[in-house]
Amino acid sequence: MSNWDETADFVIIGSGGGSMCAALACLDHGLRPLILEKEPLVGGSTAMSGGILWIPGNALMAEAGVPDSPELGLQYLQGLVPDQPGSTLARKQAYMNTGPKMIDWLRAKGIPFVYCRGWPDYYDERPGGQPQGRSLGMALFDVAKLGTWKDKLRRNFLRLPVQGVEGHKMTLAARTLTGFFTALKVGARMLRIRLLGTEYAGSGAAIQGWMLHTSLKAGIDIRTEWPTVDLVTEDGRVTGVIARHNGRDVRIGANKGVLINAGGFARNAEMRKAFGPQPSFTEWTASNPGDTGEMLQTAIKLGAATHGLDRAIWCVASRQPNGNLGIHANELAKPHLILVDKNGQRFTDESCSYMETGQNIYKAGAVPCWAIMDNRHRTRYAWALTPPRYTPSEWISSGYMKKAGTIEALADMCGIDKAGLAATITRFNGFVAANRDDDFHRGERAYDRYFGDPTHRPSPTLGTLGEKPFYAVELYPGDVGTYGGLVTDEHGRVEKADGSIIPGLYATGNVTAGVTGSVYPGAGASIGASFIFGYRAAKHAAGANS
Asked: Which of 269, 298, 467, 539 could form a disulfide with 375 if both were Cys (CB 3.0 to 4.6 A apart)?
């Protein structure tokens, strides 16, 4: 036996989406969990995200009168993603069958999910797809509930108190009454926060705030600034970890196993260069600072199999003059905008999912690409969280946003082929007139239309480019984390290349090969999987049916 400094039943590395879910499941089965987070803040990339879980057949859908089932979810996912390492039929079935039960269990513990009705699956036209959506958000979280842990909850730089689909509705504040009143509601919350000194976290910080609050109330041992530097094995079994705290190595035994939920390697430049499509830079990611890949590398040294290391959850991005990373998840679907490469050619349905758009950028060799928009887009819709009708002077003076009176002049400013761009716009405007995009079928899915403008007729996403001045912004395939890694089975157990199990070692989240393969089926698929397989791993370690 190893000479342990201390022991726990289940050691969980990282504090992202599935970690506290796994820890709570441990308690239900009499196990003593320990969460080790290397960063000073708790929550991982989940806390910085939009804060959504994709759960087919969940009870909130039924309560809203939207029919669905795990069987339909499986039909949909199986049709999108062929069986492959990390995305076997058994893993997909486990996701579908466990998700609704897990949500019921978390709701019973006081976790207040909200149904994001109307946020469609990303391929809703496929068999089993759901136009009303299967995504769950979280009610706002009063950060004061955390007491002394208040300043340890990770949040993104926005800190907007929004929940469910409010963020989407706000982008149409200048176009729809629903958007206008949603913006007023959120504005009132922000004013109340400023006047009363109370902070309400939304989105991913709300998920992790509620999970942290529930975990602390349950007495779960959570330690920040405790990086794990190695896994300890005995006779091929993972029996504990070596963690580092205050410059000292601490040997911690894990009686029932170790769960890695430490994220991917989006912040590791060498790994991005070795595994990902190129060009690729750490400056292009919106993942958390701790997303550096050490635990993935440690598991690989033990013989763990990997799959899909070239994948990421792509989100089209721009670098603003103030240094902030602009993530463009919905502006691209609005009318009067197209994406083109340096030859002025379109290469994608601009309104498809952010992950698919990123993949299409790489497939087309369009790094960087350009968003081309006319005056109507700039006056009607937000860009990079900046309201319509307002273009900061530094955007133009810095060259971040190009502005010209003609398409030809705009092309010259961007280094785009003038004839190619002019021909593309003429062709696209013809598609708009026919209300049919023959090249990329923009607007044909419910998801395509979701982020469009419902007041724009006849299509909420197809709009001509013709009203000057014209604008352009250089874009590249940013991401919110890598999406490939350790191959795991339906219980979250880490596998070797020959399909055998590494005893005592479990993994979930972005450190694993995703159950959805290279496809993002709906909002919150990665967080949903992190929760589900963390939950299943804990139950398996406890010897319970999962």
From this structure: 467
